[in-house]
UniProtKB/TrEMBL annotation, chain B:
Family: Belongs to the B9D family.
Signal peptide: none
Name of the protein: B9 domain-containing protein 2
A GO biological-process term: cilium assembly
Protein location: Cytoplasm, Cytoskeleton, Cilium basal body
Native source organism of the sequence: Dreissena polymorpha (Zebra mussel)
InterPro entries with a match to the protein in the record: C2_B9-type_dom
GO cellular component terms attached to this protein's record: MKS complex
Main localization, broad class: cytoplasm
Length: 1713, 175
């Protein structure tokens, strides 16, 4: 019925428009209205009715239309409807008739007046009764209307035509309908039928009116047609011929046809709509006006309700009728008749179409019951009643019951019998209708066919979604905030892997505790001694050495015999060979004996100690009258045979004496030989002297007797000789070697034996320690002890476990047992997501409330192979320096106490203990260790890919080499059962396919990876130089890091490009592998250590440096704040001082924009002060020994003509010559700068090792005029330059500071031959001028263009420090640094070699200086420190930040920065009892640096640790320019004074207005422990090495000087050298400071005929090359003359730990003419 | 001994449901390949464009390979991540593409996808963020089993790569 729906939709619209049109298009109707009202005979309210009538008419017309449509449509629609219509009509007729009768007979009206709501039947009935009378009036009126209407409607002829068909209809409809109606309609109520009748009548009237209206409409159709679109025609168009043909005859016009069909359609629609309304009319008997009003107004709602009601009624009626009616219907034969009935209807319909007006729509169901009944006729409701089987099977067949016949039928599925019956009814109905095929549904037994059981007999699995492959598994990840650092193993807190560490804490045992009683302490001592004893006993070194000695003696003896026996048979070499062997034996015998003696001695002392301790314990127990410890020493005595012992003893002593005698004899013989020789010489001399004396005497006599002079000449000669002889020093008579003194030797041997050995007859002692002594019960002890014991049991111990410095768990509090043990025996498992950095245990002790930290101890992070299965418990010793008062019977900790009663021996014991623990990686249920994957590339994202793909992890090369693969497989703990590893397992499967032992098969495969497709072999690829170069450059290997252009072809790669690198590699390898027997063994060790540290640090640094943070990526310039704006504004208004030009800050140039060759270092030398003057000038009159040019040209005489030479990267530029000792240069010099590899990036620049040398020279003009006669006409002079001092400024210093500005002290030698400081020569010393005046140089150095400075590496690294302290320190620092605009150097945390931030105070602790400095002054210590080579951190750790080493690291590396020097010095000073602090400040030229401040007798000194110099705080020449803070082991004090120059400051630290300490009363020092070692151990420097080195340096220097002046002959003046060599140690003694005038005098005295200029240079020894360089820099060699002579002396002074002070004394001598 | 030098950039990403994206990338090669210089994996910044439909990374890629064979030509693989307003990161897509085998400049569009997960996961994802990820990210470029994954199409990663080849002709390979 889609078309129906469509229609419905359409008509809604159409109806509307039609209504309107009707309203408009029927003016005639309106015109008729008054007429109608006029004719209306009703007595009341005529005017009102006129209105109502208009409405009525409209509705009427609509109804009419619908009716028409109905009739038109009926033939097409189903027959049932037709039938119904017919029935209805006939009924109407009947009713009409009845009504008419009723009207006459009973004047009663029934219709309910309440038009608004349709009432239920009961109500209606009541109301009908009530309103009966009123109704009659109305009825009458209606009748009138009817008549009137008919009158009006009369004229159209069509109307007449309708009645006949109606009449015709009646007869056929009548017969069936009254019959069924009679029983039902009779009883329900008369009123209902009456009502119906009345309604019918009314309707009829209405219909008449409608038909009239319709007629009128027809007239207006034409107009309508114009407005209507033809397209609106639907498929009903096709019915045109059929429906339209009658019309065509009627209307003729072709166009009209369309219109008619249209019309019809519309009517049909109208009818549809009104149909339910019609049904409703049945109950209503309102006045026509009211009814119409109602209908027009409330349309939709009514309809709905009506329908509902209808349904209800239908249901009730159905139930009523069910039995009788239904059966009747089915059984009766009206059905077959019906088609026959329909036949005429259709034909009639045709007629109806032609004469529509006669088609009365009254044929509609007048009653709901009627309707239901009708519906009942139409619908088939299958009953649930059972049907006899015969009926179902059919008449022709017999009912068979297979079951009864014995067949197996199976169980039918259960179904409701009612449902089944209904189904059967339906089927039967179909059969009845003629579809015999439906009978097939029934089985032979008459029941519906059905399979026995619809369920499958076999169970089958429903289809399941396919299982997901393990590889395809998804993992739901929460959105996480990812930590972009490598702390997490898997990158996030929610790692993928499961890693677990198991920490097993077994027990804590205190080897000393403050609650130890004295007896405990002793017992502990005894136990430890006993342990030693047991170990020694087991080793039994004495016996072993004794045996060895015996064996050696025997073999020596044997050898001796052998030699004696075969003396003649051997030749010389053999004999010497034997002799040497004998010698060896002897040496060994001596050594072994010494060893044995030593061992014996220790054994003996140990025994003695044990016994003494045991005695002390016993005494203690006696004294305190109770026993506290279970220790018990049992001494078993083993009585020896005294006689036997005596014999052995004697024998041994004898043997030893014999040996000694032997040895002595040999010695004696040797000595005797020399003695005799010397004796001989001595005697000869005596004799000669005597003779000479004689001769002299004789001669004197002769002279006296006046002998001839003839023999005079001869005599003279003789005489001279004699005199000489006589003047010779007398040789001392040599000491005769002593004979073997039996007695004394015996005595000493016996004494030794007595001391070390068991005496004869003395019983042998066997000790045994047991814990069997009974401890006195507490109640028997004295009160103190009772309390102590109570304290012990009150003392609770627990251990915190810290992972990466975070507490992860802690043990329970367990009370200390009386033997000071706490057992936990618990395993703490930690699942970790971070990389393990540290695992630490904190032993806490708590007595009462709160707890104190006893000790913190670190456990090593277990190796990956250490799992909880394999791990064993380990002991970790700890100690605490906490002082604990002794109370009652306890001894306390860190407190002196005495044992027993004697107060002689004070003893201090610190709390110590042993923690038994183990740390291991956990193992999961599969035995897999839960170890995180190796550290490499830990922070990359695709690492776990490699983990998944084993082949990718090892690369293709690994596959080629099965051996390697197998190794890797074994090492990587791959699961052989994992299917993803199947191919590897297959590859590696050994013989017999045994997977447990994965070894490669012992055959090879061709084309493992289709090798033939390879272009080249792997090896070729590896060896390609070009590739290697590129790779090394990419890896930022130092040598290749800045390699700009890699050639495009391999052949262009320089051949030697890797030689240097490979050499270095080899060197490193060598350093790593072996402790070479080089002469510089210790140096090597130092180098090795340095290399190790360097490697380590570089590795860490690279990791750090490649971790970028926000600032690295985004460069945001600071927005200038308002304060800055203010200052810049102020500048505008500032007073201009043209004479004081300001230096403008230049813009930094980035590395990329620098081409090279334009970068230069600008050195502005303003002036020099206090330049030494020539001695000749200064001491003119003083000494005549000095050269004397003054008499020749007194007027030309200048004191000194200094100039400055700047040397950098082999470029040399000099200033003009200044004049006098305080010259002013004001010159700007430019030196070009070239960075290595032309790479000007900060990373490269900070590793530039070059330094700017500033040398001050004196220009000396030497007149070399050969011929005095030409003096008037010719000038022949030579200009010489004499070195006066130098200043070395490393490039990095300039680079880091940007510029260097200030007055610097020039490093001048302590002695400058030929020169003297003016200040010294003039006036007395007491004027207040500092005695050691030094040359000063005013400088300004900068780089042009300024280069970008390296970004400081992120200062804050991971740390072990306490969080709170860090925060505190940060706040403190922030608060102070904000107060001062030029930021002051404040240091709280520094970076150690492990790249950890460490609190700075931890670096301080009194440390012992080398032993030989004890008792010496601080200057010596400072000198020692300054002699440790200074190497800036940037050079050791290129590209790194400042790294602070501890003192032991510093001494081990033997090189360090200012701060290392300063720390060491402070620590030494602290040890020496001097108050010392470290100064963080700025100095020139170093920039930010560290100095040392000391206080001695309220005078403060500032020390420069790297030069060893000391300054008073008020010394203006002190290079320290500002002090930011001072630090010592307790605190940090920030300088909050307005000034920070050292000479303007106050140094009383208690002054809170001057110094702000970090830790004060509110901020307590958390007890930071020092990270420095407790003491340092110094190695003595090898003296031989020193002399060797000295020779070496001298040799090298001599050669170098000769090289440098290869054009001239270089002569060496030995004598001068000797004198100089003698003076050098003196200089060292005087710490290179005060000038010892004596030696100068000596020199001057010796070389008065020479002009000597020279100086000693002192430097710490690092290598030979720097020494050479320094000498070269002085330019001593630069005398271009053959006449000159040189003198050179080298002295190396050894200090402990291979700290060497090198002195080089060079001088040039020129003969005075 | 042939060389491949890839210089280019991860230009940007379009078509993702949200902006504020960043991209992780890596390069995967066969065993015959050897990296001479350059980073083989990395991560771009988070780009949160205000006015654009695309996120721009302009993340440089510069890798120099040497190879002794053609097998395992390098592939680039990506993970596009989204950073939400809480700063949390969630996966938005996986994708991979081969490095072009012809020299010259190439503009590459690499479509991405992400695993869809179960219904429950999808609901969780829409409310709480996060999302299913591959347990084995090497699935991104190993094709064997990828067909069994249920995925959702995501946006496209745009690449501009310049490829320089060297010495391939020596070994009879025309490019």
């Amino acid at each position: 019925m889609t078309s129906n729906a469509r229609r419905k939709r359409k008509d809604e619209r159409l109806v509307q428009s039609e209504d309107e049109e009707e309203g408009i298009s029927n003016p005639s109707m309106e015109g008729d209205l008054p007429e109608m009202t006029g004719t209306d005979s009703s007595p009341e309210m005529e005017a009102a009715e006129a209105d109502a009538l208009v409405k009525t008419l409209k509705t009427k017309r609509r109804k009419k239309k619908k009716e028409l449509a109905d009739e038109v449509i009926s033939p097409k629609d189903d027959l049932a409807r037709q039938l119904k219509e017919a029935k209805r009509k006939s009924q109407q007729k009947i009713e009409d008739a009845e009504r008419e009768e009723m009207e006459e007979s009973a004047p009663m009206s029934v219709v309910a007046d309440d038009g608004t709501l349709p009432m239920p039947e009961e109500e209606e009935r009541e109301s009908v009764l009530e309103e009966a009378e009123g109704e009659e009036v109305r009825r009458l009126r209606k009748k009138k209307e009817e008549t009137e209407e008919t009158l009006i409607e009369g004229p159209p002829g069509e109307e007449e035509e309708t009645p006949p068909p109606r009449e015709e209809e009646e007869p056929p409809a009548k017969p069936p309908s009254p019959v069924p109606k009679e029983p039902s309609d009779e009883m329900p109520s008369k009123s209902l039928s009456i009502k119906e009748k009345m309604r019918m009548r009314m309707e009829k009237a209405k219909e008449e009116a409608l038909s009239e209206v319709k007629e009128e409409e027809k007239e207006s159709r034409k107009e309508r047609r114009l407005q209507r679109d033809k397209k609106q025609t639907t498929r009903f168009d096709e019915t045109k011929p059929y429906i339209g043909s009658p019309h065509a005859s009627f209307e003729i016009d072709e166009n009209e046809l369309d219109r008619i069909t249209e019309e019809k359609r519309l009517q049909r629609l109208e009818r549809r709509k009104k149909m339910p309304a019609k049904g409703r009319e049945g109950f209503q008997m309102p006045t026509a006006e009211e009814a119409f009003d109602f209908f027009t107004r409330e349309w939709k709602d009514e309809e709905k309700e009506e329908v509902e009601e209808g349904v209800e009624k239908a249901e009730t009626e159905k139930a009523e009728k069910k039995e009788g009616e239904e059966a009747a219907e089915q059984e009766g034969a009206p059905k077959p008749d019906k088609p026959e009935d329909e036949q005429p209807l259709i034909t009639q319909d045709d007629e109806m179409v032609s004469d529509l007006p006669t088609m009365m729509c009254a044929a509609y169901t007048p009653d709901i019951n009627e309707q239901i009944k009708k519906e009942g006729e139409i619908y088939f409701v299958p009953s649930a009643a059972e049907i006899p089987a015969t009926q179902k099977v059919g008449a022709d067949f017999e009912v068979r019951r297979l079951e009864d016949e014995g067949f197996y039928v199976g169980k039918r599925p259960s179904a409701g019998s009612r449902n089944q019956n209904r189904m059967e009814h339906r089927l039967l109905k179909e059969i009845e209708k003629g579809r015999e095929s439906s009978r097939a549904w029934f089985g032979e037994d008459g029941s519906l066919l059905a399979l026995p059981d619809p369920l499958r007999s076999l169970p089958s699995r429903p289809p399941m979604p396919e299982e997901v492959e393990p590889v395809l598994k998804l993992d739901y990840k929460k959105a996480v905030i990812r930590e972009f650092d490598s702390r997490y193993i898997d990158g996030t807190t929610e790692g993928i892997g499961h890693y677990q560490l198991d920490v097993d804490l077994n027990q804590v045992f205190f080897t000393h505790h403050h609650l130890y009683s004295k007896e405990h302490a002793l017992a502990q001592k005894l136990t430890s001694l006993y342990e030693q004893y047991v170990i020694r006993e087991r080793k039994n070194m004495t016996a072993y050495l004794g045996e060895k000695l015996k064996a050696l003696k025997n073999s020596a003896l044997h050898l001796q015999d052998h030699i004696a026996a075969h003396k003649s048979e051997y030749n010389l070499t053999d004999r010497s060979n034997y002799d040497r062997r004998l010698q060896d034996y002897r040496a060994e015998i001596i050594q072994t004996r010494q060893q044995r003696d030593r061992e014996e001695k220790t054994d003996r002392t140990l025994l003695r100690h044990i016994l003494a301790t045991w005695k002390a314990i016993k005494k203690e127990r006696e004294l305190q009258t109770f026993t506290n410890t279970p220790v018990k020493l049992q001494i078993r005595k083993e009585d020896g045979n005294k006689v036997e012992d005596e014999r052995v003893w004697k024998q041994e002593v004898l043997a030893e004496i014999e040996e000694l005698r032997d040895e002595h004899e040999r010695e004696y013989r040797r000595n005797m030989l020399t003695y005799e020789e010397e004796m001989k010489r001595y005697q000869n001399q005596i004799q000669a002297k005597a003779e000479a004396q004689k001769r002299v005497d004789k001669r004197r006599k002769k002279i006296g007797s006046k002998q001839s002079i003839r023999s005079g000449a001869e005599d003279d000669e003789q005489h001279e000789k004699d005199l000489e002889l006589l003047s010779e020093a007398d040789l001392t008579p040599p000491d005769e070697p002593s004979h073997f003194d039996d007695a004394t030797v015996r005595e000493s041997v016996e004494k030794k034996a007595r001391e070390n050995r068991r005496r004869p007859g003395e019983p042998k002692l066997h000790l045994e320690l047991s814990n069997t002594a009974t401890i006195t019960p507490t109640q028997n002890c004295n009160l103190d002890e009772q309390r102590r014991r109570a304290d012990v049991s009150k003392c609770m111990i627990f251990v915190k476990i810290l992972f990466n410095n975070k507490e992860v768990s802690r043990t329970n509090m367990k009370p200390l047992s009386q033997d000071f043990k706490v057992s936990y025996g618990q395993i703490y498992s930690m699942k970790i997501v971070q990389w393990p950095e540290s695992i630490a245990f904190q032993v806490h002790e708590s007595i009462g409330l709160g707890s104190t930290l006893v000790a913190e101890l670190c456990a090593p992070i277990p190796d990956t192979s250490v799992t909880s299965v394999s791990v064993q418990l380990e002991d970790l010793e700890f100690s605490s320096d906490r002082k604990e008062k002794l109370n009652r019977a306890a001894v306390g900790s860190g407190m002196p106490f005495t044992y027993g009663s004697d107060n002689s021996q004070l003893e201090i014991l610190m709390t110590t203990g042993i923690l038994t623990y183990s740390v291991a990686w956990a193992v999961d249920e599969h035995g897999q260790a839960l170890v995180p994957p190796a550290l490499v590339n830990a922070n990359t994202m695709f690492t776990h890919m490699k983990k998944m793909d084993p082949l990718a992890a090892i690369g293709a090369a690994g596959v080629m080499d099965l051996k390697k693969l197998a190794d890797w497989f074994a090492s990587s703990h791959l699961d052989p059962n994992d299917p993803s590893n199947a191919d590897i397992v297959y590859l590696l499967r050994g013989k017999g396919g045994d997977t447990s032992h994965l070894t490669p098969a012992e055959y090879f495969r061709l084309e493992q990876l289709m090798v033939e497709f390879d272009f080249v072999t792997q090896q070729e690829l590896e060896e390609n130089k070009r590739f290697r170069l590129i790779q090394l450059r990419d890896e930022e290997v130092q040598e290749f890091k800045n390699y700009k252009m890699v050639p495009a072809h391999e052949r262009e790669v320089p051949r030697d490009v890797f030689t240097e690198y490979e050499r270095k590699k080899r060197e490193e390898q060598r350093l790593k592998s072996e402790g070479d027997h080089d002469i510089e063994t210790q140096r090597m060790a130092v180098k090795r250590y340095r290399q190790k540290i360097r490697d380590q640090v570089m590795r860490r640094f690279r990791r750090q440096a490649h971790m970028k943070n926000w600032e690295d990526m985004v460069k945001e310039d600071m927005v200038p704040n308002i304060a800055l704006l203010g200052t810049s504004l102020m500048k505008v208004f500032a007073r201009r001082t043209p004479l004081k030009p300001q230096r403008k800050k230049q813009k930094k140039v980035v590395a990329q924009s620098i081409k090279g060759d334009e970068v230069r270092i600008i050195v502005n030398i303003s002036r020099a002060q206090n330049v030494p003057v020539r001695l000749s000038a200064a001491m003119q009159a003083g000494s005549g020994a000095v050269t004397s040019r003054q008499d020749t040209r007194p007027l030309e005489q200048t004191m000194v003509r200094p100039f400055v030479e700047v040397m950098f990267q082999h470029h040399c530029i000099r200033t003009s010559v200044g004049d006098g000792s305080n010259p002013s240069f004001n010159e700007e010099l430019e030196v070009p700068f070239r960075a290595p590899f032309d790479d000007y990036s900060p990373g490269n620049l900070q590793t530039v090792p070059d330094a700017v040398f500033l040398n001050i020279f004196d220009e000396v003009v030497v007149d070399i005029q050969e011929d005095d006669r030409e003096r008037g006409r010719m000038v022949h002079q030579r200009i010489e330059k004499k070195w006066l001092g130098s200043l070395k400024i490393p490039f990095t210093t300039i680079y880091f500071n940007g510029k260097i500005d200030g007055t610097f002290r020039v490093n001048a030698p302590p002695v400058l031959l030929g020169y003297v400081y003016e200040g010294l020569s003039h006036g007395p010393d007491d004027i207040g001028i500092n005695k050691d005046l030094k040359t000063l140089l005013g400088l300004f150095i900068s780089i042009q263009p300024p280069l970008t400075q390296p970004e400081p590496v992120k200062e804050r690294f991971s740390t072990n420090e306490d969080e709170a302290t860090m925060v505190q320190a940060d706040q403190w620092k922030e608060q102070i640094s904000s107060r001062f605009t030029p930021k002051r150097e404040l240091k709280t945390f520094v970076t150690d070699v492990n790249f950890k931030s460490v609190f700075i105070t931890r670096y301080f602790r009194p440390i012992n200086p080398p032993d030989e400095f004890t008792g010496k002054g601080p200057e010596l210590v400072a000198r020692y420190v300054s002699l440790i080579p200074f190497v800036p951190d940037a050079a050791i750790f290129p590209g790194l930040c400042d790294i602070w080493n501890t003192c032991d690291q510093f001494l081990a590396m033997l090189s360090g920065d200012e701060e290392e020097h300063a720390i060491l010095l402070v620590n030494y000073f602290l040890h020496m009892g001097i108050k010392a602090w470290l100064i963080c400040g700025n100095a020139i030229p170093e920039g930010p640096t560290a100095y040392v401040l000391t206080e001695e007798a309220n005078v403060h000194y500032i020390w420069n640790p790297s030069s060893g110099e000391r300054f008073r705080t008020n010394d203006a020449t002190c290079p320290l320019r500002s002090i930011g803070c001072i630090v010592n082991n307790e605190n940090i004090w920030a300088n909050i004074q307005p000034y920070d120059k050292p000479d303007q400051m106050m140094y009383s630290l208690t002054e809170t207005s001057c110094w702000e300490p970090l830790f004060n009363n509110s901020r307590r020092n958390p007890g930071l422990q020092s990270i420095q070692p407790e003491r340092l151990y110094y190695l003595q420097t090898d003296k031989d090495f020193v002399t060797e080195l000295q020779e070496k340096i001298q040799h090298v220097l001599k050669n170098k000087v000769m090289d440098w002046r290869s054009r001239y002959i270089t002569r060496w003046n030995r004598h001068c050298s000797q004198i100089m060599r003698k003076t050098l140690p003196l200089l060292e003694e005087s710490l290179g400071k005060s000038v010892d005038q004596d030696h100068i005098k000596e020199l001057e005295a010796s070389f008065s005929s020479y002009k000597v200029s020279g100086f000693p240079i002192n430097m710490p020894f690092t290598e030979v090359d720097p020494i050479v360089e320094t000498v070269y820099a002085t330019g001593v060699h630069g005398h271009e003359s053959n006449e000159i002579e040189f003198a050179l002396a080298v002295y190396v002074h050894p200090y402990p730990n291979s700290v060497l002070s090198v002195w080089v004394y060079v001088a040039s001598l020129m003969k005075n003419r | 001994m042939a060389e491949v030098h890839i210089i280019g950039q991860i230009y940007g990403a379009t078509g993702f449901p949200e902006h504020s994206l960043f991209c992780k990338w890596g390069i995967h090669t066969g065993g015959a390949w050897k990296i001479l210089a350059g980073e083989r994996e990395g991560q771009s910044q988070v780009d949160n464009p205000v006015n654009h439909e695309a996120a721009f990374f302009a993340h440089p890629i510069d890798i120099h390979f040497a190879t002794k064979g053609l097998q395992g030509w390098p592939k680039l693989h990506f993970q596009v991540w989204h950073q939400d307003s809480f700063g949390r990161n969630e996966l938005y897509g996986y994708g991979f593409c081969h490095v072009p085998t012809s020299p010259g400049q190439h503009t590459i569009e690499c479509p991405t996808w992400r695993p869809s997960g179960t219904y429950r996961e999808q609901v969780t994802q829409s409310f709480l963020g996060g999302g299913p990820q591959l347990k084995n990210p090497d699935l991104i470029y190993s094709s064997a089993l990828r067909c069994k994954l249920t995925t959702v199409a995501m946006g496209t990663v745009h690449l501009k790569l310049g490829v320089i080849l060297r010495n391939f002709d020596k070994f009879g390979i025309e490019c």
